[in-house]
Amino acid sequence: MANKGPAYGMSRDVQSKIEKKYDDELEDRLVEWIVAQCGAAVGRPERGRLGFQVWLKNGIVLSRLVNSLYPDGAKPVKVPDAPPTMVFKQMEQIAQFLKAAEDYGVIKTDMFQTVDLFEAKDMAAVQRTLMALGSLAVTKNDGNYHGDPNWFMK
User: Fold this and answer.
1) Cα torsion for 141, 147, 151, 153, to the nearest 10°?
2) Considering all CA atoms of the chain, what is the largest pairwise distance in Å, rounded to the nearest integer?
3) What CA–CA distance (Å, rounded) separates 111 from 65?
4) What's the pLDDT band for 133 if we cut at 50, 70, 90?
5) Is the per-residue pLDDT at 147 higher than 60?
6) pTM of this prediction?
7) CB–CB of 111/101 below 8 Å?
8) CA R_g for the chain
9) Which one of 46, 69, 85, 101 is separated from 34 by 20 to 30 angstroms, measured CA to CA?
10) For 30-70, what is each residue's pLDDT tens digit?
């Protein structure tokens, strides 16, 4: 990420199209759900794509989110006491979230790649994954979903 220069030509056009898919209103809804699901301890991001990315980047909020969808004693992702500071540990935490989300029932085509979040390559894909996870949680109706069921499609 540190050695990445500006994009030119077709690369810039492609990245621009990807960035246009990001939905600010959807971001607000997802933040509301994550805070309702995990509690106020997760905090809130600064508004906008970059704030959302920074909030989720270390994987802790995502891990707490997926753990909150399981009953006590069956948490699929280990959440470290202190947020990871090393890049590979943060990426590993995101990968654990992705594995747990897939085990929960999110289909492969709805999943983002770790770099989509970590390097903010495709934040719209991150939104799609979270929407799929929320929709599944509402549909399962097992008592572990918190928030407004109308935020997601069944």
Assistant:
1) -10
2) 51
3) 15
4) very high
5) yes
6) 0.87
7) yes
8) 15
9) 85
10) 999 999 999 999 999 999 999 999 999 999 999 999 999 99
